[in-house]
Structure formats: C-alpha cells, structure tokens
Amino acid sequence: MLMAHPAVLRNLVEQYDALRILHAEDGSEEVRRRMGDVAYTLCVSTGTRDIDAALIAARHRLPGARPHDDSLVPA
Fold first, then answer.
1. Could you give the dihedral angle defined by the CA atoms of residues 53, 54, 60 and 64, in that order, rounded to the nearest 10 degrees?
2. 0.90 cut: is pTM over it?
C-alpha cells in the first residue's frame, strides 16, 4: 500500500479539525460537504474505512507520534 507523506497527513488532519470546529459553530452544507471530502481523503490515505480510524492512523504516522520515531533519521 502506498503511504501518504507525513506533511500531507498533517495537513489533512489540521483541515479536518478546523472543519469540525466550523461545523459545530455553523453547520452549513458547504462545511459538511468539505468535511466529507477531507474524511474520504484521510481514509484513502491511511487505508481505513472510517474517519475515527483514519485520524488515529494519520496521527500515528506523524513525526513525533512515537517515542522511537525514526522519521528524521537519514536512510
């Protein structure tokens, strides 16, 4: 499976979090639609089927997520 770059995952998680706040405040159709789009992209990017699992998987893949994260170690 192809893995999304951590920068892409970070951007998607940040977008989803911001949209979730907007949805709680105004709940417009546009915000709901955009949340759905970002949720779908997160699921595809992480190989999951629901947004909760996608958020967990994405956050787990971000640098600093694990105590022994080797993402900064040159290969």
1. -140
2. no
